[in-house]
Design brief:
Blueprint (H helix, E strand, L loop, with lengths): L3 H15 L12 E6 L2 E7 L8 H9 L7 E4 L13 H7 L4 E4 L11 H8 L3 E4 L3 H7 L1 H9 L3 E8 L4 E3 L11 H13 L2 E5 H7 L16 E5 L20 E5 L5 H9 L3 E4 L2 E2 L2 E2 L1 H10 L4 E6 L1 H9 L5 E6 L10 E2 L15 E9 L2 E8 L14
Parallel strand pairs: 3-4, 4-5, 6-14, 6-15, 8-9, 8-14, 9-10, 10-11
Antiparallel strand pairs: 1-2, 1-3, 7-16, 12-13, 15-18, 17-18
Length: 380
């Protein structure tokens, strides 16, 4: 049985877990609090470079105050030997009396076994407090550890009438500074950022993370470019500090262009093609092998259509500015051939809606989403 105090301490553990965003991948972001007689004795969160998991850091800070204490953990403690020993063993040795777990670990190597071991040792374990909030922190990890593929997070900054551009060079910024800052928060939590070559040619972006919070793992820049039209002089090759650039192309892309781009530091990856473009399943499979947990797809219009029509989007953020662009030549947020009828189009559910500055954000999930947080999973 959990109470108001449990909720207060779990909320603090979740705030600790948030400190690991951008620092924990390819591991999940986890927070832990050790509480002794109503007072916080130890705090911990996971950062991949520091090896120690959140529980170990919290136990170290608590020291002798761990005996008969309660541990609040946002994710089930691990029970297997990885880069570090099992956390359940450390909790047992420390004399922890009770463990409150927000969410069980989706990793098949754990998946409830850590909880079983704790209970077998006589420790009281309560599960499920603030599970949804904890799930958001491990959403990409959960997808990758169960499917081998990254969680595909699409993002489009758009006008009220669904346009992402005027079709002209001027006036590219549609959303507010706060909306663009929200986009940087999405880049913080992602391991890779993907656009099509059309975006590179039209906007010449750097595709970098420019947020305030530290990001330990360099953001992988991914370009879909069937014929290798990316200019070797593109700004994405000039950004500092440098981070990886992966360009996916078709088998018929010119070899001389491949050499030119490789000389600029790009890695060229040839994948099968279809009538509609590159085989995106092959792209996702390759990224999954590279431990990309979360892939942020920022467009453009044709790329969003390719991922949506292929049933590959897990989570789509629509950032809506309070303006109308209009015009037949303005660019829709989703292009492509479109669906023949509304009946054939995928259905979405809105999980959350909130404001960032004057802009409205809709956090949506299509019915085919692989996410553990998909609202479609709640259908009885």
């Amino acid at each position: 049985m959990v109470d108001a105090a449990d909720r207060k301490f779990m909320r603090k553990a979740l705030r600790l877990a948030e400190k690991g965003l951008g620092l924990a991948s390819p591991n999940p972001s986890v927070g832990c609090l050790i509480v002794q007689e109503g007072s916080i004795a130890g705090r911990g969160w996971h950062e991949y470079a520091s090896l120690d998991h959140a529980e170990i850091r919290a136990l170290r800070e608590a020291s002798g105050l761990s005996k008969n204490a309660t541990a609040y953990v946002t994710l089930e403690p691990c029970c297997h030997q990885g880069r570090t020993p099992p956390c359940v063993d450390s909790l047992i040795r420390a004399g922890i009396r009770r463990v409150v777990v927000a969410r069980t670990d989706p990793n098949p190597r754990v998946a409830g076994r850590g909880i079983e071991i704790l209970r077998a040792s006589g420790i009281q374990v309560d599960i499920g407090l603030m599970s949804e909030e904890a799930g958001k922190l491990i959403e990409p990890f959960a997808c990758h550890v169960t499917t081998g593929l990254p969680l595909v997070i699409s993002k489009a900054g758009m006008s009220l009438d669904g346009k992402i551009g005027t079709g002209r060079p001027e006036g590219r910024e549609i959303t507010s500074p706060e909306g663009r800052e929200f986009g940087q928060r999405l880049r913080l939590a992602a391991d890779a950022l993907l656009v099509g070559v059309g975006t590179v040619l039209a906007d010449d972006p750097e595709l970098t993370y420019r947020g305030r919070q530290p990001k330990a793992r360099p953001l992988i820049r991914v370009i879909l470019d069937s014929l290798l039209r990316t200019p070797p002089s593109a700004r994405l090759f000039q950004s500092r500090p440098r981070s990886p650039v992966l360009i996916f192309c078709g088998s018929g892309a010119p070899q001389n262009r491949s050499i030119e781009l490789e000389n600029q530091g790009a890695e060229i990856i040839r994948v099968p093609s279809s009538d509609t473009g590159l085989d995106l399943q092959s792209v996702l499979g390759e990224l999954g092998k590279r431990d990309v947990l979360g892939l942020l797809v920022e467009g453009g219009s044709r790329v969003h259509w390719s991922f949506l029509s292929g049933g590959l989007v897990d989570n789509f953020y629509f950032i809506i500015a309070t303006l109308v662009l209009g015009g037949k030549n303005s660019i829709p947020s989703v292009g492509g051939t479109g669906y023949i009828s509304a009946a054939q189009s995928p259905r979405f559910k809105i999980r959350r809606s909130f404001h960032v500055g004057p802009d409205m954000v809709l956090e949506t999930y299509p019915s085919y989403s692989k996410s553990i947080l998909s609202p479609w999973l709640n259908i009885g």
